[in-house]
Amino acid sequence: MDRRTLLKLVATAAAASLMPRTGIAQQVDPAARGPQARPPFSFEEVVRRARDLGSLPYERPASAVADVLAKLDFDAYRDIRFRPDKALLAQSGGPFRMQLFHPGFLFRQPVTINVIREGVPTPVPFSAQMFDYGRTKLDKPLPVNTGFAGFRLHYPLNNPKVLDEVISFLGASYFRFLGRNQHYGLSARGLAVNAGGEPEEFPVFREFWIENPEANAERATIYALLDSPSIAGAFQFHLYPAAQSVLDVTATLFPRTSIPKLGIAPLTSMFFSGENDRHLDTGYRPELHDSDGLLIHSGSGEWIWRPLRNPARPAIAAFVERNPRGFGLMQRDRHFSHYQDLDLHYQTRPSYWIEPRGDWGEGHVELVELPTGDETNDNIVAAWIPRQTPDRGQELTFGYRITALDRETEMHPGGKVLNTFVTVPKAHGSDEPVPAGARRYLVDFNGDDLPYYLGDPQLVQVDASISAGQVTRAFVLPNPAIGGFRASIDIEVPEGQTGDVRAFLRAGDKALTETWIYPWSSQ
């Protein structure tokens, strides 16, 4: 765990103190099993507990960790590490191992972690013997009910002989998982409530159940109980580690109140600087981002690419849909030379692609972009916002699949946006005046059938439009260096207005590429 991983959770650390004290989640006593014993623990049991929890008033607890743990600084907390030889889930000889996170520092409200063996859940008791405290010294022994901050699963992901971390749950309802040869970047969340608003609410996973995988198991199953002042919920996760790992998610939710903006399948990422939005304080590293664009496969079949930005002021964009086929925050730029960071591996950070199951109805994919002064803050959120406001007592169920991608070659058959550049609409070296509210966008497209059209570039046109203002000039040029084309689009927006520019390449009536969208404000 590095400094950035912890610092970016500061905003959600307070949410961890919102977990209620209610004792609804009772454990099944293994000694009680017999002819009249309860059926094996399953997701239905978590749903029942979430339903009961959501029917009760929310209860705000006090912080539960000892003062000595709450006062740990970053370095002291980082020095506490789980001992790999104490890993759980080894009894059945399966391929997964579980390690636990120690409570303390920002993580002051422990969560309960259970292991399910033969259908019976058993809580994992805290033991200091599980951890190597390094140079961190505690004044007195910690009690058995100290609990844990979260957990992670290990699996032979990259090498049959090496157990690599494949998924982690730590802080509020955040989780991250990896495919082969990937490094952690963006995060997923259980739910988002009023993301980008004031105040934002951070639901928390207050209890987990992990099934003990059998020998030769190809998946891990995790259940989680979520809670917040506005909503309770039950989550089921099926993890399938692979070159591009897959996480199947089912969430059953029970609102305590009417929630105007409930974010389903939320993703959180960082964008500080990129070729379309450069900042001079990146030092020797040209770009710094975990994701560089939002990709949407609309219900109508259109593919949309929206480059991410680090705006001067908070910005929210909504892409209205009905039953979206997919959306995700993507790390499309995979060139080390664009990052030049030997430690943080930005070029191998995964993209997370969401594919809904069932009927999600009407709503919109919402993109929240917040200004950030450095790379330690997660300033990007994308989520599905249902059009119908969830009401108190209503039961909601959503299913979706998240795939951790390291490439997009099979996402869709059309050409893709490779680069976006923003500049002033005038020739190099010219002293011609630039009208207020004017901008030029240079958009590189490559892939699919575009190399074919380099043989006759005149067949390719750019279809450009803007929601407010006007497109004053648009043309396309071949770009053999990328095996594609560069579109040049000049626009003007009236003072005080904001316009969304849209563009794609076509040959006659045939669309050749995805649709590029970018906002511009003349304020």
UniProtKB/TrEMBL annotation:
Its main location: periplasm. InterPro entries: Gal_mutarotase_sf_dom, GH-type_carb-bd, Glucan_biosyn_MdoG/MdoD, Glucan_biosyn_MdoG_C, Ig-like_fold, Ig_E-set. Pfam families: MdoG. The keyword ATP-binding does not apply. This is Glucans biosynthesis protein G. It is found in: Periplasm. PANTHER family: GLUCANS BIOSYNTHESIS PROTEIN, GLUCANS BIOSYNTHESIS PROTEIN G. Belongs to the OpgD/OpgG family. The keyword NADP does not apply. Keywords: Periplasm. Residues 41-520 form the Glucan biosynthesis periplasmic MdoG C-terminal domain. It comes from Chelatococcus sambhunathii.
